[in-house]
Structures are given as structure tokens and as C-alpha cells.
Write a structure and sequence with these properties.
This protein has 110 residues and is mainly alpha-helical. The protein contains three helices and no strands. Helices cover 76% and strands 0% of the residues. The longest helix has 31 residues. The chain is elongated, with a radius of gyration of 22 Å.
């Protein structure tokens, strides 16, 4: 896998494999699930005041949203591991690049 393009004004980005990316996503999703469990535990506390409960509800809602997003990204990573899908996406990207080149040539020819 080629190195990731560096953002402007920064050095080269580190190489990231699909396995590395997948592991990071799974770890982050797990952290959100742990946070959700912690929120549930604190919300179940009979001594918690309502202001604290509101805070924990908001934290839980954000963690649920983030966990769902990480689950979607994880699913996409799994799909990208399918050689057919990866090849098809590469073909589509190459076709788009050719179309962009044709359009640029047409603009320059005008």
C-alpha cells in the first residue's frame, strides 16, 4: 500500500493498513459501548440528581451516535476487503480520472 498523501504543510503521513484501520475502528466502537454501559450504570443510580442524569443522558446519546458511526465504518472496511469490490472501486476511480482528463483537455482546447 502506498503512503497516504501528506496534508499541506506537514510531513508524510504514516502508512496505515486495512487491518490497522479496522482495529482502530473496532477499539473506538468498544470504547463507546463501554461509555454507554457507564452511562446506564450512572443513570440507574437512585442517588443521582436530575441535572446529573441530564448530563449522562446527553453523553449516552452522543456515545450511541458515535458507536453507530463506527459500526458503519467497520462494515465498509469489511466490504473493502472483498477483492471484487476493491477492484471495482479502483476501476471506477480510474474511469473518473480519465473523464476528468478529457474534460480538462476540452477546456484547454477552447
Amino acid at each position: 500500500m502506498a503512503a497516504n498523501p501528506a496534508p499541506p504543510g506537514r510531513g508524510a503521513s504514516p502508512r496505515v493498513s486495512w487491518r490497522d484501520a479496522s482495529t482502530v475502528i473496532e477499539n473506538e466502537a468498544s470504547r463507546r459501548r463501554i461509555r454507554i454501559d457507564e452511562c446506564d450504570r450512572r443513570l440507574a443510580d437512585p442517588d443521582a440528581i436530575e441535572r446529573d442524569r441530564d448530563t449522562w443522558r446527553a453523553i449516552k446519546a452522543e456515545a450511541v451516535r458515535e458507536a453507530a458511526a463506527f459500526d458503519v465504518v467497520s462494515m465498509l472496511i469489511e466490504r473493502m476487503r472483498d477483492p471484487y469490490i476493491a477492484d471495482r472501486l479502483r476501476e471506477l476511480a480510474e474511469a473518473e480520472a480519465r473523464e476528468a482528463d478529457v474534460a480538462a483537455d476540452q477546456v484547454q482546447g477552447e
